[in-house]
Amino acid sequence: MLSYDSVKVGASLEEIDTPALLINLDALEKNIRLVGEYYRTKNGALLPHQKGHRLPIIARKQIDAGAKGVSMTSFGLAEYYVSCGIKDILITCEICGDNKIRRLCSLSKHANIIVTVDSIENARHLSEMALANNVKINVCVELKTSDISAGVEFSNAKYFVRELTKLQGINFMGLWEHQGELGGIKSWKIRRDEHFSTLDKIAQLKSDIEDMGVEVQIVSSGFTCTWNITPEYPHLKDVQVQAGSYVFSDWCSHELEGLEVFDYALTVLTRCISRPAPDKAIFDFGMNSCSDESTHDYHNVVGPKFKNLEGVREVYEREEVSVVKFDEPNYEVKVGEVYEIIPPHSDTTAKLYDKYYCIREGKVEAIWPNIGRGLL
Ligand SMILES: Cc1ncc(COP(=O)(O)O)c(C=O)c1O
């Protein structure tokens, strides 16, 4: 890991070279505890998605708080997690190509890995390579519930599962889906109704498959915006919920998804580097250090918000610096001072840095290398 600065544990925020990625440990721990405690008493299984923080140490905290394993989309990240001792991983992505499947065969000898299938060609490939490598590959069928996802159509899924079970070398484990559009529905009730109507279809499919004599051990569905909805569904038991972004949260999940219950645990520390006019300040963050899009619609440029700075009218983000315009002349902000900004989308911001500075009571308590950020 390339690193030129020499910040030490115990340093204050002012001593950190900016821009820098901060984790507020109290907020992080609160978010993990809140969701973990909820799932302890509910009909649901938390399987936190790791695509945001990509840190095995946080996965461990999530498991200690009650999660039953983890989920992730990147295969390379799964290899890293297994090397860090994480054993139960649902990979929410189809694994294709000789070399990746060979790596999957190897990984399946060291941990409980489940991968996604949605085509018979890919399933045959997995089956052949599993047999050649003397291993069983666990598979879950992805169901198509969104216009922007892969997956098997519901109408075809029973037939598809029957074909899968004829193949040797693979174990059919169950069904999963990700209906990302639910995140754009702010009303909890409308979101619940939409999610429940998908779960109704899954429950029916599960029962149809079991009528063929094939056990459906796993149903995985739901994410942060259904964290307290999926477990309320009465007709399925212990649905695995792939909630991810609750750990860090961000301002778009508060304002667009109505998820204010989670505290902001990820911020970017930035410094004012110039005051070109009383109503303008220039800060040393830009698109290279804080993502500018909203998860609600990735093409929607929205920019970050300041944590403790009032009167900001506009943040014009360039690549390496940003121009902040105030409503009125501002004489408080001084060159050299540090401020925290809240990203619109934590997941994509976190991938921009080699390390996280973990802060408690204004001091660096730990520095965590962000090894997972480049593992695809
Ligand atoms: C397949 C899958 N599961 C779960 C998630 C987690 O979503 P969230 O971070 O909103 O909980 C994502 C995010 O894009 C995803 O793609």
Characterization of this structure:
The chain is 27% helix and 25% strand. The protein is of the alpha/beta class and 376 residues long. The relative contact order is 0.17. The protein has helices spanning 25-40, 56-64, 75-83, 98-108, 120-132, 154-164, 188-211, 251-255, 346-350, and strands spanning 20-24, 45-46, 70-72, 88-94, 112-117, 137-142, 170-176, 218-220, 240-241, 266-277, 280-283, 293-294, 297-301, 305-306, 312-317, 322-326, 338-342, 355-360, 363-369. The two termini are 17 Å apart. The mean pLDDT is 96. The strands form four sheets. Strands 1, 10, 11, 14, 15, 16, 17, 18 and 19 form a nine-stranded mixed sheet that branches. The protein has a six-stranded parallel sheet with strand order 3-4-5-6-7-8. Strands 2-9 form a two-stranded parallel ribbon. It folds into two domains: 13-20 and 258-374, D-serine dehydratase-like domain (Lyase, Ornithine Decarboxylase, Chain A, domain 1, Beta Barrel); 42-247, Alpha-Beta Barrel (TIM Barrel), CATH 3.20.20. The structure holds pyridoxal-5'-phosphate. Residues 49, 51-52, 73, 92, 178, 180, 183, 223-224, 242-245 line the site of pyridoxal-5'-phosphate (PLP).
